[in-house]
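#lab-general

N.A. 3:47 PM
ok so I finally got the sequence cleaned up, no stray characters, all 187 residues accounted for. can someone with queue access submit it? mine expired

B.Y. 3:52 PM
send it over

N.A. 3:53 PM
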Amino acid sequence: NTDAVIAERAALAAGERLHPDPPTLVMPVIWTGYSGAELAHWPGTIRLRTRTFADLALDTVLSLVDMGLRKIIILNGHGHHPAILEMVAREVADARGVYIAVADVAKMAAPAVQEHRRSAPGGCIHACECETSLMLHFGAEVDMSKAPKEPLHSPSRFFPADGFVGSRAAFWSTWGAVTRATSRSFW
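B.Y. 4:20 PM
back already:
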């Protein structure tokens, strides 16, 4: 549940900092989503098809829009979701003329990870020092006796095996000029 816990607690922390100006609603986390077939070997991985996950996110956001909400940010906590959520944002814009933002916890954390990380490339993916640090920061229970001493994945020239090698901006939006904004210039 690491991705869901991190996304939920990051959203709650952001909501607490923002509310009451502007009034902020933090929705419950969508705890499952799309994961590639290669992740199915991890016990507990519940996988949705890409379109099923996209439809779930789309219908949730369209419901909020139909209730009158206009400033919506989807906060992503899973590495396989950015392109799907960007597609959902485009579909919301096309269907309702409402332009939402997609933010990514890992991409927002990237500058700090690059500055403070102890592992070489390959060490920041799935149960890595970043996810572990965030879980500890948010008060989640972590069994540090199970923390591996070496990275679980090895980088190659074709696959960095690291969520922080060559990452894009933390925010993506259908708002046009904002699409390349960093988290500092966005707010």
